[in-house]
Amino acid sequence: MNTQLSKKRKIVITILFIILFAIIIFSFAFVIYRHTFSKSENISKLAKRDECIVKEVNEVNFNEYLHDKKNLVIFFSTTCSHCVSDAENITKFMNENKDIPIIMVSHDTDINNLNAYLEKFEYNWFVIRDPEKTIRASIDEGESGIPSFYLLDENANIINKHKGELTFDELVEFYNNKNLEE
């Protein structure tokens, strides 16, 4: 009887260890999965572009929004008349190129004005609000002026850049890595 009880106890303990081990493995796998696919979740949000998403980001966590292909990053402000004129071309480019990661970086200080602007014109942009302009400084120190367009790789290295307005066709050429400054 004592031996049967001992065997049952060993079986229960073994089953508990197996369950505990499975929980640990599942938790570890889940953490790895979330870390690995967090960028692809951002890409799918950008690709859908069915709603405006405004994030508060600085240069420290900016790179987590970059994807492992060319990233089009556009610096703008709702108070900049040239930026406002570019908005239609940018939206058209986004709608015709849903697989391209495009990040709008707003220098607006008032988030309510930014949200009202995006809502008024029905822009479904992925926007990072950076009123301190720390992202621009970390990418291209000493540069200023908006609108500004950057093609960046996944490590925020500059592939191409342009300062000033772009027509739709120029935006296509810019993304295809043609230097428009020449």
Tally of extended strands?
A: 6
Beta fraction: 15-25%
Largest sheet: 6 strands, mixed
Number of domains: 2
What value does the Rg take, in angstroms? 24 Å
Q: What overall form do the CA principal axes indicate?
A: elongated
The H-and-E topology, N to C, reads as HEEHEHEHEEH
CATH C-level class of the largest domain is: Alpha Beta
- Kindly report the name of the CATH homologous superfamily of the largest domain: Glutaredoxin
Main-sheet strand order equals 1-4-3-2-5-6
* Discrete helix count: 5
CATH architecture descriptor text of the largest domain: 3-Layer(aba) Sandwich
Unreliable segments (pLDDT under 50, ≥5 consecutive)?
38-45
Structural class: alpha/beta
Helix content: 40-55%
Map the helices and strands.
Elements: H1 2-48, E1 53-56, E2 71-76, H2 81-96, E3 102-106, H3 111-120, E4 126-129, H4 134-139, E5 148-152, E6 158-163, H5 168-175
Parallel strand pairs: 1-4, 2-3, 3-4
Antiparallel strand pairs: 2-5, 5-6
Q: How is this structure best described in words?
A:
The protein is of the alpha/beta class. It folds into two domains: 1-44; 49-175, Glutaredoxin (3-Layer(aba) Sandwich), CATH 3.40.30.10. Helix content is 48%, strand content 16%. The protein contains five helices and six strands. Strands 1-4-3-2-5-6 form a six-stranded mixed β-sheet. Helix 3 (111-120) links the parallel strand 3 and strand 4.
Which characteristics define this entry?
182 residues; 6-stranded mixed β-sheet; elongated; alpha/beta; Glutaredoxin; single chain
